[in-house]
Amino acid sequence: MSVAARFHVSGRVQGVWFRAHTRETADALGLRGHARNLSDGRVEVLAVGSAESIDALERWLWQGSPASEVAGVTREPADVAEAADGFTIA
Fold it and tell me: Which of 19, 23, 32, 42 is catalytic?
């Protein structure tokens, strides 16, 4: 059964390949969804898949890409229907 979560990641997460690394990690975990920059400097990540894979992605989000500096990660439930097929960068 698929579940969905929306994450908001703050810190130095734009312009440091954070979204691309997030997509690679999500693909490896078999997740679908998206990563997109927000106007306030955060990155939003929507993930749909198994609870275990989403938990693993959350752990990775706290680490981030090699050049990022993650200050915080918030998580809230999301609707499974919000994600299209695959994992995209918006």
Answer: 19
- Could you confirm whether 19 is annotated as catalytic? yes
Neighbours of 63 (CB within 10 A): 11
Q: Tokens 């306030």 identify what position? A: 40
Which residues are CB-contacts of 21 (< 8 A; sequence separation ≥ 6)?
64, 65, 66
Kindly name the residue from 6, 12, 36, 37 that is annotated as catalytic.
37
Dihedrals φ, ψ of 77, to 5°? -65, 155
Is 12 tagged catalytic? no
- Is 0.85 topped by the overall pTM? yes
Neighbouring C-alpha atoms within 13 Å toward the C-beta of 43:
31
Identify the pLDDT of residue 83. Answer: 86
- For residue 77, is pLDDT > 90? yes
